[in-house]
Amino acid sequence: MTLKRISPQNQINTENITGLHKDIIGDFVNIRGDVSNIRGDLKLNKIIGDVSNIRGYLNGLSGDVSNIFGEITHVKSDVTNIRGDVTDIKGDFSGVIGDVSNITGDVTNVRGDASYVEGDVSNLVGDVGDLRGDVTNLRGNVTNITGYVSAIRGNVTNISGDVSNIVGDLTGIEGDATDLAGSVEELVDEKIL
Q1: Residue span of the structural domain in which 86 resides
Q2: Is there a single domain that holds both residue 105 and residue 183?
Q3: Does residue 152 lie in a domain region?
Q4: 52 lies in a domain?
Q5: CB atoms inside a 10 Å sphere around CB 138
Q6: C-alpha to C-alpha distances, 128 to 1, 99, 107, nearest whole angstrom
Q7: Whether residue 107 sits in one domain with residue 175
Q8: Closest by alpha carbon to 142, among 167, 166, 125?
Q9: Residues 134, 120: contact at Cβ < 8 Å?
Q10: CA nearest neighbour of 161 among 179, 134, 136
């Protein structure tokens, strides 16, 4: 006969975890790793995977957490399809996939693969999957634009097409930027846009 420690009723299947403490409860059957930096109720938050690299409160988090790291307190929804550092990001990740290490801000209104964008996405709406570069100076709906965006700024809601070869502020401008090159001011003055 062997002796075995009895787990409290609110902490079961703890064989694959370390760092157990009173602020995390539930069934640990689907998670592994160090739980010392996370807290919350596993019954309410359906997470699986290795939790060693995350810290914070589990409220609203679900999915496979194995590929994310950082502070998760303000991250909501299923994180199965994302990877990277989520420390400076908040909001609903339902539509986001890819590596989010280079973005900050609220991702609630953003969708698509965020692997190739960087900067603050708080002022964006729409699909960022076809964008490359720093989106910090953009605002509005980015669904209809593609390409490298670090050289443009402003509200891009009324712009469509590939913006890779234009430079400047697109606020108050509309049209298709595909095949255009140069500064926005020159292109508008020449009535090309």
Answers
A1: 18-91
A2: yes
A3: yes
A4: yes
A5: 28
A6: 60, 12, 11
A7: yes
A8: 125
A9: no
A10: 179
For residue 71, give the amino acid letter.
E
Quote the pTM value: 0.86
Judgement on whether residues 74 and 147 belong to the same structural domain of the protein: no
Are 49 and 118 in the same domain?
no
The verdict on 58 and 25 lying in the same domain is: yes
**Whether 76 and 156 share a structural domain:** no
CB within 8 A of 125, min separation 6: which ones?
109, 110, 140, 141, 142, 143
Residues, the chain:
193
What does DSSP assign to residue 45?
S
Q: Which two tokens stand for residue 96?
A: 């986001």
Q: Tens place of pLDDT for every residue, the chain, 193 residues?
A: 677 665 556 899 999 999 999 999 999 999 999 999 999 998 888 899 999 999 999 989 999 999 999 999 999 999 999 999 999 999 999 999 999 999 999 999 999 999 999 999 999 999 999 999 999 999 999 999 999 999 999 999 999 999 999 999 999 999 999 999 999 999 987 665 5
For residues 187 and 137, what is the distance between their CA atoms, to the nearest angstrom?
Answer: 20
